[in-house]
Amino acid sequence: DGVLLSEVRRPCRVMLLVNPQSGKGQALALYNGPVQRMLHEAGVPHTLFITERKNHARELVREADLSQWDALVIISGDGLLYEVVNGLLEREDWEQAIHTPLGILPGGSGNALAASIHHYSGGPLVSSEELLVSCGFILCKGLVSRMDLTSVHLGSGQRLFSFLSLAWGFVADVDVESEKYRHVGAARFTVGTLVRLASLRVYRGRLSYLPADDDGDTGAERGAIPTGGGEHTFRNTCSSNNALNTKRRETPSLYGPADSLLPPADGPVPGDWAVVPEEDFVLMLAMYQSCLAEDLRAAPDAALDQGVIHLMYVKAGISRASLLKLFLAMEKGTHLATGCPHLVYRRVRALRLEPYAAKGLITVDGEAVEYGPLQAQVHRGLARMITG
Ligand code: ADP
Ligand code: MG
Questions:
Q1: Mutate to test the pocket of ligand 1, among 30, 54, 75 (most ligand atoms within 8 A of CB)
Q2: Looking at ligand 1, which atom is closest to the CA of residue 81?
């Protein structure tokens, strides 16, 4: 059920963004070692940008002259790509800008998208080092595919875009609490999960969703990337950006596609939405790619460009042992088949979450966002990702 994709001769003029603080703080060393070697051997010219602070990459991408770049590639965890995606969608020329091919080389502790892309390419579960090599090959090969993005509206009216996950409850707490274990790399999520299991709690709120009424394969945007008759290469992509105005206005959330599936935030959900009867949860996790972490295949049926949000929630009342079993089964992606009565899985297009408590944690792509009610909808194939 692949989509795409046009072959690229070779990526050129890559903007390579490195977060020196990600993971164990090794991203720059990875660049100076294996990454530079691979890019050199494959003849991929690139310019290195080392981020100096959070949101630096977001600002660079928001202001960049995209006619100078054929691809934007990050060496970091998912958080840096989250900055890049949102930077592109905060531009006045977002519609063209978001077509810039994006690439990811795992250099962080949370490398879920890199793991997902490796998984889609048919690769087995691998160590972090092998994952980097696999993603390096994928980057040098340079195939471009469409990738879904989910638009998330927060209570304050702010909107942001997500390529991976939206989490509340147990998973969001682990995302944030495990940041202090970043020095252990990808194992931070295992440590965080065990710590959280010891203080397992219930999260109260209302969850509603718009079911996906089909297998996700009828989206209007389905199909190969239009190439205008020519070969789809990074260079072609780039030249289509040439004439664009890259000026920025002050209200970033003005930009991006309209969210036609979402009702007004202060009104009820439409009649074709489902409201979950339970109000006591242990976790809610919405995924649009397969891996939640390097070794957690949380949405085993997810693919890059399905136009589907894989919504999972675990109802309160689950025992610690059963929850641990679910996370262990997630390594192979078999948790949905365990028959756990507390776990519910739905394929949806949009969702609304209304937490009852005034305080708590919600994460988007592993990054903590403003806590409170939110709505989200998937936009099929909005972004372009370099994949295997
Ligand atoms: P990890 O997988 O280790 O979490 P991420 O790529 O997610 O790595 O980055 C972690 C956080 O660091 C993100 O919130 C990102 O926005 C932020 N960040 C990016 N560059 C820097 C920097 N130079 N210094 C500090 N934080 C940064
Ligand atoms: Mg992160």
A1: 54
A2: 6
Instruction: Looking at the CA of residue 182, tell me the nearest atom of ligand 1.
Output: 3
78, 148, 173, 295: the active-site residue: 78
Nearest CA to ligand 1 atom 11: 79
Backbone angles phi, psi at 172, to 5 degrees: -65, -40
- In 113-259, the DSSP E strands lie at 143-154, 159-162, 165-169, 203-211
Ligand 1 centroid – CA 368 distance (Å)? 12
Please provide residue 130's backbone torsions phi and psi, each rounded to the nearest 5 degrees: -65, -35
CATH class as words, domain 14-150+220-239: alpha beta
Dihedral sign of CA atoms 69, 143, 16, 299 in order? positive
* Of 289, 347, 364, 367, residue with least CA distance to 115: 289
Position in ligand 1 atom list of the atom nearest CA 58: 16
Q: In the annotation, is 148 catalytic?
A: no
- Domain range 153-218+259-382, CATH class: mainly beta
CB-based contacts of 124, cutoff 8 Å, min separation 6: none
What ranges do the domains of the chain cover?
Answer: 14-150+220-239, 153-218+259-382
Query: Is there a common fold for 14-150+220-239 and 153-218+259-382?
Result: no
Split the chain (388 residues) into runs of 10 and give each run's mean pLDDT.
Answer: 38 88 94 96 94 98 95 98 98 98 96 97 92 96 96 96 98 96 92 95 98 61 38 38 35 78 96 98 98 96 98 98 97 96 98 97 98 98 96
Atom 17 of ligand 1, nearest CA residue: 54
